[in-house]
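so my prof wants the structure for this chain in the tokens format not the other one, which i didnt know existed until like an hour ago. anyway here's the sequence
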Amino acid sequence: MIILTRLRSFLNPITSSIAFYPTLYAITAVTLGLMMKFAESKGISTFLQKNAATMVVNDVDTARNILTTLIAGGISMLVFSFSMVMLLLSQAASNYSPRVLPSLISNRKHQTILGIFLGSILYNVFTIIGIDPTGKEAYQLPGFSLLLGIASSIIALAAFVYFIHSISTSIQINNILRDIFNTSHDRLSHLIENSDDNDDFPDTSEWYTYNTLKSGTIQNISISGLLQFVKDADTRIDVLVIKGTYVYLNAPFVKSEKELEEDQIKELFKNFNYSESELVSDNYILGFKQIAEIGIKAMSPGINDPGTALDAINYIAELLALRMQKNDTHTVKNEENQNVINLKATDFKVLIYNIMAPFRTYCKHDMTVTQQLFAMLIHLKQQKAKDPSYYEIIQREARLLLEDSKEVITNQVDTQVVKNLYARLSD
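here's what i got, hopefully its the right format
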């Protein structure tokens, strides 16, 4: 039971693989091919011949030619589609940010289409193998299997037409930004809805500290698995690392109220997933990072696309406004409504600083981007906040932006515009 619980928590890294859905479709096609062999042995094609003769191919050579053509055509579509996916990933990495690759690879539409191609090919291969040589009087051509093979190829052809449309829209930066924003927004909204205002947790300075057993990036934590662990071990734990950060070998990792045995420590660490794939659906902080990197790269001399930078800032502003409704701390309660797990989260101060610092460094020379950054801070200053200290943090970032802007903006009119924007924020 605990294995299934932990597997559900780590399902996203598994399904994000580009081979996941194609593998499922391939297994389904092979299974269907074997089932059809059994059905043919029971005379299903004979039944079809008697009731719908026009839908059955009776000539062996014709059946072989049809299946050979379908298999060759399916392989051609599969190769072309795979090449297009690789081209999409290459362009996205070079034009936007390499960090968007995991979200593009995990696109279920593209995985499903590749799976349909692969499944159709494998099914037709099993069907053509089932065609026996001519000369047997009692031999019945697998007409029903052939009919299903033709139907699967028609579905694959329709999927190919849709694939061309989907691949052409997926590479557009507006769609990439919107998808990242929607995923981050949904994940953050889920955390806010399931958060509790009572996040008090006891002092853990005297608790037992356990270090990491290996280095790597913690991309996901099985909360349900940890709840089961603290229940079985009758303890409370304080997770010292932030999800999405790289942890070093033998670094402080987790604290436990009670001393744990060696087998319990190993079982505890199984609830932490090490992975280098950055999936926004698991960690909303990655959404901030990816959108910010796209906006900053758009301002590089080689791309010089302020419009994309402005769109990125707008998406960040909406996510930050939502983040202001969440506390910096996050605790998890058990069935008795007791705080038993304390999770470290990225502070709002650290989050907004890590976003604003690169924008201030690489975009302060552009007045349109600078004005948009001030507009974002003004918007955030007007939002409701879970913690009043958030407003002071926003004011601090505005002051830093003003100081950096003064260093590069020499025009008096532009300087006055920046000062007026800062004055609006200080009102």
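also thought this was worth mentioning. The chain has 17 helices and eight strands.
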